[in-house]
Amino acid sequence: MKYSKIALAIHGGAGPDNEFIRANKKQYKDSLQRIANTGYRMLKKGEPAISVVRSVVSMLEDDPLFNAGRGSALNKDGDIEMDAAIMNGADLSAGGVALVTRARNPILLADQVRRHSSHLLLAGVGADNFAVQQHIPTVDCGYFVTEEQRRAWVENAIKQDHDPYAKSGGTVGAVALDQDGNLASTTSTGGTPGKAAGRIGDSCLIGAGCYADNATCAISGTGDGELLMKGLTGYSIAMMIDIRNMPIQEAAEQVIKNNKWEGDIGIIGIDGDGELAIYFNSQRMHRAWVDKYGKSEVHIY
Questions:
Q1: Higher pLDDT, 2 or 244
Q2: Lower Cβ count inside 10 Å, N or C end of the chain?
Q3: Is the per-residue pLDDT at 166 higher than 50?
Q4: In a domain, 98, yes or no
Q5: CB 164 within 8 A of CB 195
Q6: Which pLDDT band holds residue 184 (cuts at 50, 70, 90)?
């Protein structure tokens, strides 16, 4: 069978199921399918993988159904603090931002760090100021807060329940292979609901929740961030491919199954041959993809 040597996968977070997800299942799937198809069309037009993953994740950030950008979870104090990262497998350039409060699309800000900064990661006020310097669109914090996330925060406050593992968020991400054989990855999140102010997760950390190298693969992770950080999940999968010559799906499964700590982990990945890896150990992971044969799928469970 002929194939185009391009492929793309996106995710909208892994974790426990809940009533809101079940009630909005169609809306979730429609959004994931639309965004995946948009990204695939960009790849077919010859756009580079790094541009495609940046664009599709910005679309996911704009959708209030997902815990990234608009729709981000509120921390213990009821505030918004967002993280994001992007990595180009062609030259290993990368950028991340943490504790962002003003950039409408944190992934666009992370890409400016990659392109126009000598640093790899900016956080807090410094990242917010960099957004203004780089003319990234900024908004008031109220833009990010949705009725559902406010309701969840109030419910947790009443219960005095701020266990970050009680209600995992809906981190978003994308991986892609373009016509030139280049890989790229992006990940963006509002963090775990009820997290402590100042908590930084895996999504902005290269090698944990985001990794891309043309020599191995591109990975975007989701789930319990502390676990992905402890296990350096993205880089670990790449090393299984590099050192043990494992197929990407097998490498992903091995890394997640061999995780030493209890909790939810999910990944999407792609290698230089256009082979996709989709794996999670949680009740659900919102995901969609278009493979190297042009076949598309979307699933939550």
A1: 244
A2: N
A3: no
A4: yes
A5: yes
A6: very high
Q: What is the mean pLDDT of residues 108-123?
A: 98
Q: Look up residue 275 and give its two tokens.
A: 């082979």
201 assigned to a ligand binding site: yes
Judge whether 293 lies within some domain.
Answer: no
Kindly give the interhelix angle for 49-62 and 25-44, rounded to the nearest 10 degrees: 160
- The count of domains in the chain is 1
Q: State pLDDT tens for residues 41-91.
A: 999 999 999 999 999 999 999 999 999 999 999 999 999 999 999 999 999
Residue 266 among known ligand-binding residues: no
276 near 9, Cβ under 8 Å?
Answer: yes
- Known catalytic residues are 171
Give the CA distances from residue 29 to residues 21, 55, 58, 108, 298, in Å, rounded to whole numbers and listed in that order.
10, 18, 17, 24, 6
Domain that holds residue 76: 7-282
| Percent of residues, the chain, with pLDDT higher than 70 | 95
On whether the CB atoms of residues 248 and 277 are closer than 8 A, the answer is yes
Q: Is 225 annotated as a binding residue?
A: yes
* 291 assigned to some structural domain: no
Question: Is residue 2 one of the residues assigned to a domain?
Answer: no
Distance of CA 83 to the CA centre of its chain: 10
* Residue 169 structure tokens: 């968020």
Exposure of 98 in the CB half-sphere (CA atoms within 13 A): 16
Other CB atoms within a 10 A radius of the CB of residue 137 amount to: 11
CATH number of the domain enclosing 26? 3.60.20.30
